[in-house]
Amino acid sequence: MDDVRAGLRARWRSWLTLALVAGLIGGLVTAVAAGARRTDAAYPGLTAWSNPPDDLVSLDAGGEFASVDAAAVRRLPQVAASAPLTNYVSLSPAQAALMAPGDAAIPAARWHRKLLSGRLPDPGRPDEADVSFTLAQSMHLSPGDTVRLRLLGVSGKPVSVWFRVVGVEAAPSEFPPQYGTGIDVVWATPAFSRQQRGALVSQRDIALWLRGGAAVVPAVERQITRLGGGKALSDYPLAPQAANTRRSIHQQAVTLWLLAGMLALLGLLVLDQLLARLTVTEAADYRTLRALGISAAQLTEAGLLRAALIGTAGAVAGTAGAVAVSGVFPIGLAAVARLGPGVTADWPALGAGMLATVAGTVLCAAWPAWRAAVAVTRLSDIPVTSARQARVAHAIRLVTAATGLRLALAPRTGRSAIAASVLGVLGLSAAVVFTASSAHLLATPRLYGVTWDAIVEGLGDEPIAAVERAIAADSQVASWAPAYLGVLVQVNGKQVGVITTSGGAGDAMAAVPVRGRPPRGPQEIVLGERTLAALGAHIGSTVLVQIPGMGKPTARTVVGTAVFPAVGDQSQLGTGAELTTSGLLTLVAPHVPVPPPSGVLVSFQGQHAAPGNDGGGQEISALTAIVQRAGPYGVVPADTPVDLVNFGQLQDLPLLTGLGLGGLAMLTITHLLLTSVRRHRRELSVLRALGFTPRQVRATVGWMAASFATVALAGVPLGIASGRLAWVAFTGQLGIVPVTVVPAGWVAALAAAVIALSVAVAAVPARSAARARLAAVLRAE
User: How far apart are CA 549 and CA 90, in angstroms?
Assistant: First the structure.
């Protein structure tokens, strides 16, 4: 204990520096881990607070769908509460959904909406509305703006309605992917519903809160189907949609956990090297202490106690830093869903982080402390170069290069520091490959199953076939095909969304093959990679397919796998199925009218940007004008799947992580170079005495730096391989086409930058070594 007090008095600055380094590492890891926890908890927390309905049931969908009485639905035994809603047909923008509560129960009593800015609309004002955050982003709306919607009037003509936006909000049902209710929502008021009754084409809905929650939705659907005379039910259960959102946000949390793990690993390597150097410095007095009767065990205990003090101080600093930066997390959609203040203290994560910081510091110091206590070696021992290293150095003709290489390859060079620098360069290289591959994916819609530019949908009761002639006559349309999108079927009892296209002026546009081939007959089926794995099937297997509640299962042969776009609750990346049109229609019961295709997929002439980048905007506007002359039809641009939307919000995180790892690698190389020059000051002074000029000493130190950097560059090929493996694993999890991009120019620039920065950093210690007073150094040694 006395030795620890003496060391603290003598070297408190070094101890404080190490405590700050430990705090920085522990704080970063704790902050990222706490951010991962908050990311995972954000959307479920919003859902619990919002109390959204379990099901939305259309009362008068019409056509092939059932019409039911609201009072009969409310009398069902599973219904605990209900609220009326009215949906209006928006012609422009077609993707907008206009909803108006029938009374003040929504959002006052249930289905609360989190306000991001502004306020909720006054229920008595027909001209006020709030908008979902997704619509606010796409239309650049904020409180105080006005928004114009072109709605379908009962006369069949468009009616323009203006709303004053009083708030931007976020409800659980408005987070992508939400295909039943839509995510671009304008929430009007009960006053608007009363004012426009009988003037606009609308659809009455009822929101249901059920005893037993989402588990009883299938039973309620069957009962409502019977109330509608056996016709198909038009309803939107919110639980499957919420599960899609939770899954996509969970991927953000997984990314943050991986980042925390990488930071912890590299941080331990750096901390191990720094503590080893401190132990060597402290061991200068060990020979004297051993002569005074202090045992090796006592010296080891002192070293561990010293590390515990440093770790404790670092844990306190790291906890304060983690709390200070907690407002950065969560990010992306989870940040929108977050309830409560931005800066918060996640005590379970903070407590675990403090314990891990202290334990990690002590663990890193354990081996150096024991080794120093037992060996009691002199700090002035001259490192001996191995025969193999000597031969390598001898092969180099330039004397300064050979000398610098000898000093860099000395056995006492910090191996943990070299490992840390290699790992840092590895992480940066892997991040460059991963980021380049992700950018290529987001810029290439076909890789995630989108083979069209827009979907033409019917907004009324008119059949989709009535607009096909107008689409075919448009010169900007390269190909088109009517399609059934997101039809729910059961494959071996598992609910799956089906996509199929037929006819039109183009081949099937729905699914991008991964393995096998597309279906060619009614008895064949193609599945998503994740769906195939979940069923335990393989190409060539026979599966049983049926539309729920219609007839007996029919055998289908799996002939391939494909990437399916996100166009329904059950057709997500890696999941889904593709049938021929005849194969789908044969699943419909004979007494049930066959519904028309969901829409027409349209591909424009030429190449357009990826969805979300305003690609094809003029073509979509022109096509909208054409199809609306044929009736109430809308044109919806192709969308990026929510899994990739969320990943796109984190797209720069791998690169930022890699840059952080690369920065730590450079700091490690810098520290290694500074300490190596200090350790070899005797050898450098001897060289000066033998005739080395100051310029040659500086060159020798520069070659030492270049040697360290060259060893660190071993992480580049390992990083490329790691980046490829990580990308293949990521795309495999999503079930999409794995295309890896290795940017050779960036990799070469990375290698050159590491060497150049290392040599530049060497300028300071090289200048110090060249100016050292020979007599003072040699006398001290």
Answer: 32
Report the C-alpha gap between 520 and 98 in whole angstroms.
40
Distance of CA 606 to the CA centre of its chain: 31
DSSP string, 679-739: HTHHHHHHHHHTT--HHHHHHHHHHHHHHHHHHHTTHHHHHHHHHHHHHHHHHHHHT----
User: What interhelical angle do 652-679 and 694-712 show, nearest 10?
Assistant: 140
Alpha-carbon span 82 to 74, nearest angstrom: 7
Question: Is 384 or 413 the better-scoring residue by pLDDT?
Answer: 413
Cα–Cα dist 481/200, whole Å:
31
Q: Residues with Cβ < 8 Å from 687, sequence gap 6 or more?
A: 403, 696, 697, 700
Per DSSP (E only), the strands in 173-213 are 185-187, 202-210
Give the DSSP per-residue string, 579-624.
--HHHHHTTS-TTSPPPPPSEEEEEESS--PPTTTTTTHHHHHHHH
What phi, psi does 567 have (nearest 5°)?
-125, 10
Nearest to 726 by CA among 261, 381, 98, 178: 261
* CA 589 from centre of chain: 42
Considering the entire predicted model, what is its pTM? Answer: 0.69
Query: Residue 19's closest CA among 321, 314, 355?
Result: 314
Q: Contact 566/245 with Cβ under 8 angstroms?
A: no
Tokens of 321: 């830093």
Residues 503 and 587: beta-carbon distance below 8 Å: no
On whether the CB atoms of residues 406 and 392 are closer than 8 A, the answer is: no
Provide the β-strand partners of residue 496.
489
* Distance separating alpha carbons of residues 406 and 61, to the nearest angstrom: 82
Question: To the nearest whole percent, how much of the chain has pLDDT over 70?
Answer: 77
Question: Taking each helix axis from N to C terminus, what angle separates 681-689 and 694-712, rounded to the nearest 10 degrees?
Answer: 140
Q: Considering all CA atoms of the chain, what is the largest pairwise distance in Å, rounded to the nearest integer?
A: 105
State phi, psi for 546 to the nearest 5 degrees. -155, 155
Helical (H) or strand (E) element with 392 = helix 387-395
d(CA 746, CA 431): 11
- pLDDT at res. 143: 96
Residue with tokens 């670092």: 314
Q: What is the pLDDT of residue 67?
A: 85
The amino acid that residue 54 corresponds to is D
* 340 pLDDT more than 60: yes
- C-alpha 478: how far from its chain's center? 34
Nearest to residue 241, comparing CAs of 47, 460, 454, 42? 47
Whether 376 shows a pLDDT value over 60: the answer reads no
Number of neighbouring beta carbons within 10 Å of residue 349: 23
Q: Encode pLDDT of 691-701 as tens digits.
A: 677 778 778 87
3-state secondary structure 739-757: CCCCCHHHHHHHHHHHHHH
Token output for 609? 């940007």
